[in-house]
Amino acid sequence: MENERLLVIFPHPDDEAFSSAGTIMQHAETKGPVTYVCLTLGEMGRNMGRPIFTNREELPHIRKQEMIEAAKRMMIEDLQLWGLRDKTVEFEDEALLAGRFRDLIRELRPSRVISFYPGYAVHPDHEATARAVVRSLRSIDAEERPEFLAVAFANNTRDDLGPAHVVNDVSAYTDRKIAALEAHASQTGGLLKAIEEDPHLRDLLVNERYYHYPL
C-alpha cells in the first residue's frame, strides 16, 4: 500500500459524500490516509430532515454529528471542521483563506487535492472555496504541487469543459457511498429518493467524475 495522503476541501457537510465518497474510501483502502477540511457546519441548510426532525437552532449541532459519523463511514482519518459560517465563505478574505490552504498542503504534502472547479460549482460558497483552493495551488511550485481533481456539476459543464478528465469507477463502494449519504440524514432524504428514480443520478453512485483545472 502506498503511503499517499488525499486532501479533500469542501464548504459543507455532505459535499464530500455526494461528489467523492467512493474515491475517498478507495484511497483510504489502497493508498493512504484522508484529510477532509469542511469549512462550515452547513447551518443554513434548507432541510430539517424528511420528515422534519430538527429545527434551525439545532441544525448545526445535528449536522456536525452527521459529519463525524459520515467521516467514520468513509474512513476519513483526519476530519477538520474549520467553523466558518455557512453562506458567508464568499465574504472571507480569499488571500487569507488560500494561505491557510497552502500552509495545510505544505504540512500534509498530499498527493491529490479534491475540491470544486471554479465557475462550475453553482453555490457561492462552493465557488469561493474553489477559487481559494486554486489560488493556494498556484502559489506552490509546480514540482511540489499535488494533483488537483476538481468537481464540476453546473448544467453547462459538459458543453464548456467536455467529458471529465478522470472518471473513477466506484461501483465496489456503491453501498458504502449510500451509507455515507444516509449519515447526512437531515439533508439527503430527498436526494436518496431522487437517486432511486433517476438513472442519471444513480450513475453518481457508480462513477465519480473530475476535471483537471489549468494551473
Summary, kept brief:
The chain is an alpha/beta fold and 215 residues long. It contains 8 helices and 7 strands; from the N terminus they run E-H-E-H-E-H-E-H-E-H-E-H-H-H-E.
Output the keywords.
Rossmann fold; 215 residues; alpha/beta; globular
Strand arrangement, major sheet? 3-2-1-4-5
Q: What sort of overall outline do the alpha carbons produce when their principal axes are compared?
A: globular
The main pleated sheet reads as: 5 strands, parallel
Number of helices: 8
DSSP summary, beta strand count: 7
Beta content comes to 15-25%
- Mean pLDDT figure: 93
CATH architecture: 3-Layer(aba) Sandwich
Which structural class is indicated by helix and strand composition? Answer: alpha/beta
Question: Can you characterise this structure?
Answer:
- The chain is of the alpha/beta class and 215 residues long.
- It starts with 5 loop residues before the first strand and ends in a 5-residue tail after the last strand.
- The longest helix has 16 residues, at 15-30.
- The model has no long low-confidence stretch (mean pLDDT 93).
- The protein contains eight helices and seven strands.
- Strand 2, helix 2 and strand 3 form a beta-alpha-beta unit.
- It has helices at 15-30, 59-73, 94-108, 124-138, 157-161, 174-183, 185-197, 199-203; strands spanning 6-10, 34-40, 78-84, 112-116, 147-151, 166-169, 207-210.
